[in-house]
Amino acid sequence: METRELRYFVAVAEELHFGRAARRLGIAQPPLSRAIARLERRIGVSLLDRDSRGVALTEAGAVLLHEGRAALDAVEAAERRTRRAVPGKPGLVLVTKAGAAGELLPKLLDAYAAEPGAVEVEVLLCGVGEQERLLRDGRADVALLHLPFDSTAGLDVEELTTEGQVVVLPAGHPLTTRTSLRMADVSALPGLPLPRWPGADGTYPDGPGPEVHDSTQLFQLIALGRASAVLPESCRPMLGHDLAAVPLADAPHVTTVIAWPPHSRSLPLAGLVRAATRL
Amino acid sequence: METRELRYFVAVAEELHFGRAARRLGIAQPPLSRAIARLERRIGVSLLDRDSRGVALTEAGAVLLHEGRAALDAVEAAERRTRRAVPGKPGLVLVTKAGAAGELLPKLLDAYAAEPGAVEVEVLLCGVGEQERLLRDGRADVALLHLPFDSTAGLDVEELTTEGQVVVLPAGHPLTTRTSLRMADVSALPGLPLPRWPGADGTYPDGPGPEVHDSTQLFQLIALGRASAVLPESCRPMLGHDLAAVPLADAPHVTTVIAWPPHSRSLPLAGLVRAATRL
DNA sequence: GGCGGCGATACCCGGCGGGTATCGCCGGCT
DNA sequence: AGCCGGCGATACCCGCCGGGTATCGCCGCC
After folding, report:
1. Cβ burial, residue B238 (10 Å; 0-12/13-18/19+)
2. Tens-digit pLDDT profile for residues A120-168
3. What is the pLDDT of residues B60-89, one digit of tens each?
4. Residue A53 CA distance to nucleotide D6 C1' (Å)
5. Residues of chain A contacting B4 with CB distance shorter than 8 Å
6. Is B85 close to A6, i.e. CB distance below 8 A?
7. Which fold has domain B92-154+256-278?
């Protein structure tokens, strides 16, 4: 199976429409129909049910969509990492959520830079839930993730730190006089709903809170009295004077981990992980 | 990057010889040279150093060899799993080392078969260290692995059982009168060296013991008085009357786990894992 | 200095990936 | 009922690329 065929199939399977898929791929519709038909013939199973008015995935088609995306990611990763393997380029790309890992990241970079044989580390900041994808398709080599929010499925992992969480409120809110709160106190604050973060697919869950996708948005909404948030303790240094944080006694602890694709064998990566675990 | 190019490059990188690689691929040498040259041009980095008398991998070439193998496995896996996704075929392929998981496997298969919605499970028995490969390239969906011997890098895992180890000796050996032994007692038994198993690459480590690759071989060698072995307790039912087992007090415990590729989303797999964890 | 091995180059052919034009089918609108 | 429009399949054509053979250029070694 050639990657072109796989890309074509994924496009059709996502659009469920040959015409749109062809436009997305920058080709005409007939060659696309042919390519899919040949792919089905070669694999020996039917992937799409074309009945009049529309296209639907067969069971096998759903499997190929899933597995094919992973395979295309792996091929892309191979190409990207190869392109970056020429001497002189930054040796490692580290990705983490923008605004997270406040103090940890500079400490880690300093500690690693002091190691013998350290290479240049490029830092990539991404949105919620994007790290795993970046690791899988080769745009990044290593990530800082936060359990239990991020998935570590299929990644190798070392734990770095564990911390409690705090609730972030507008300065002057009545509850800010308390020294400790419980989840029940903040899960349904009148007028201060918890925000909704986008899922891995970019869509927002249903609920009362405002939609946010970065911490700047979030902090502004809290300062305006439109939301509250439950965040790891390490967010405290980022809060302006218009925000206040109160510890949560019973919130789940947040574990920061360093994660990388399991087949990685690069020496610089090993060095970075070693530096991280020694912090 | 097309999978054909990737296959060609991997062949050349493994053979370090265009002629042999071309023969292995079933094509002539000139098209292979051209394909590699175009691949290098398109990626924009040089992958091979051709000096007179031979070919060597560049740094980037080594990266592409590594990542490319993983990518080719992923593509193969996509195709194989798709081909198997047509109704009527065995729904799951389970792989384990031949001779291991003695009692556990039938119990697991029975328990799963009793579940509602259970599908047919094909059992594949393979040699040491092959399971991970079979999972990655789609020939299997789920594996029984034994920690700390097998690597679970990049796999999702549930622990099933933990057991101690025993030393297997020829019946009548003086030590078989003891009720318990320590590793130090058996690590250097005169005339009964521990055997050497092949590594993931199919080669054997250096050492005094005989080379073995399955348990039948091993048991026969022990019965002949040429070797001894340290194995999990569950091997006891497989031993004939010409072999004896003595518990080892300080051997590392062996944990049997059920493992699967982390991106799997299949319902039958979930059912099998559930059945396994409930055993 | 000739020979042999190896990768690169030159050149040719057929198939496949791409295009345009058109068909066949079906659902919906009038 | 009949026409129209949307959509995937089919027919047909072209140019490139993947494959082949023949040969060259380079180098190490008798």
Report:
1. middle
2. 898 888 877 788 889 999 999 999 999 888 888 889 999 999 999 999 8
3. 999 999 999 999 999 999 999 999 888 767
4. 8
5. 2
6. no
7. D-Maltodextrin-Binding Protein; domain 2 (3.40.190)
Residues B143-183 pLDDT 10s:
999 988 888 888 999 999 999 999 988 888 888 888 888 88
Name the nucleotide nearest A31; use CA and C1'.
Answer: C18
Q: Which residue in the set B44, B71, B85 is minimally distant from A60, CB to CB?
A: B85
pTM for the complete prediction?
0.87
What CATH code would you report for B165-247? 3.40.190.10
CATH number, span A3-84 = 1.10.10.10
Asked, colleague to colleague, whether B92-154+256-278 and B165-247 share their fold, the answer is yes
Which strands sit side by side in the sheet containing B254-260, from one edge to the other?
Answer: B121-126, B92-97, B142-147, B254-260, B156-163
